[in-house]
Design a protein that fits this description.
single chain, alpha+beta, six-stranded antiparallel beta sheet, three-stranded mixed beta sheet, 19% helix
């Protein structure tokens, strides 16, 4: 499955990974938490990242609310009950958002 992977302090990269829990947990470094993003995107991060003191990665902004996302992240397609594969165009769009300012403004 094509996804975007970003570690704190690094540029995002487009990767191919198995759409299974264990490989996804390996990229995130623990239990996963999902956060719906605009459109059909879904952010996957470490559920305990803030408790573990992981490094800041990106910020999600919704109106006046700001949430700091810490630790490694994956962005995939939101297919309801399943994680889905990003198209090349979607992956490029996600890379430009999380790799540029590191701020995702939610609609």
């Amino acid at each position: 499955m094509r996804a975007v992977y970003k570690q704190p302090g690094h540029v995002p990269e487009i990767i191919d990974l198995d759409n299974e829990l264990v490989p996804i947990q390996g990229f995130i470094g623990g239990y996963i938490e999902t956060v719906p993003l605009d459109g059909d995107f879904l952010l996957i991060c470490n559920e305990e990242g803030k408790l573990l003191g992981l490094e800041p990665n990106i910020f999600l902004i919704s109106g006046t609310n700001v949430d700091e996302i810490v630790g490694p992240i994956l962005v995939v397609k939101n297919n309801g009950e399943e994680f889905g594969e990003l198209t090349e165009e979607e992956a490029d769009k996600v890379c430009s958002i999380v790799g540029g300012s590191g701020i995702w403004r939610l609609q």
